[in-house]
Amino acid sequence: MSELVDVCPLSELPTGAVKRIEWEDLEVMVVNCGEEILAMEDRCSHDNGDLADGEIDVSRCAVECPRHGSWFDLRSGKPLNLPAYVPIDTFPVVVEDGVVRVELD
Ligand code: FES
């Protein structure tokens, strides 16, 4: 069963900013891409790189793995270049009463 987990007030997540949350055994990164707020597992599918420490490209809603340079589409979780080739899980985000929440299961 899924659960809505609080991330932070919307005011603390300006465009280009990243928040990292932990829930059970999952680490999730939440990113404000300007037009939308997106959530993806904070673990590179290539070799467990910490994506929340990577560069964010707001113009295409993507993050670069700081370990070996694969970029990931934050909307789909799909890698955009090698060496990663396996998609990463993404999660729905809602903003309610000025609070960013992510739906995890
Ligand atoms: S760990 Fe992310 S590209 Fe290698």
Give your account of this protein's structure:
- The protein has 105 residues and is mainly beta.
- It has one domain (3-104): Rieske Iron-sulfur Protein.
- 0% of the residues lie in helices and 43% in strands.
- It has strands at 3-9, 18-23, 26-32, 37-41, 56-57, 62-64, 71-73, 90-91, 93-96, 99-104.
- The strands form three sheets. A four-stranded antiparallel beta sheet has the order 2-3-4-8, with no helix packed on it. The chain has a three-stranded antiparallel beta sheet with strand order 1-10-9, with no helix packed on it. It has a three-stranded antiparallel beta sheet with strand order 5-6-7, with no helix packed on it.
- Strand 3 (26-32) and strand 4 form a beta hairpin.
- The chain binds FE2/S2 (inorganic) cluster.
- Residues 44, 46-47, 49, 65, 67-68, 70, 83-84 line the site of FE2/S2 (inorganic) cluster.
Instruction: Give the ligands present.
Output: FE2/S2 (inorganic) cluster
Low-confidence stretches: none
Distance between the termini: 6 Å
CATH class membership: Mainly Beta
What class would the helix/strand composition place it in?
mainly beta
Got a strand count? 10
- What is the CATH architecture descriptor? 3-layer Sandwich
Rounded mean pLDDT score: 97
How many domains comprise the coordinates? Answer: 1
CATH superfamily: Rieske [2Fe-2S] iron-sulphur domain
How do the strands line up in the largest sheet? 2-3-4-8
User: How big a fraction of the residues is strand?
Assistant: 35-45%
Q: How does the major sheet shape up?
A: 4 strands, antiparallel
Task: Tell me, briefly, the overall form.
Answer: globular
How many helix segments?
0
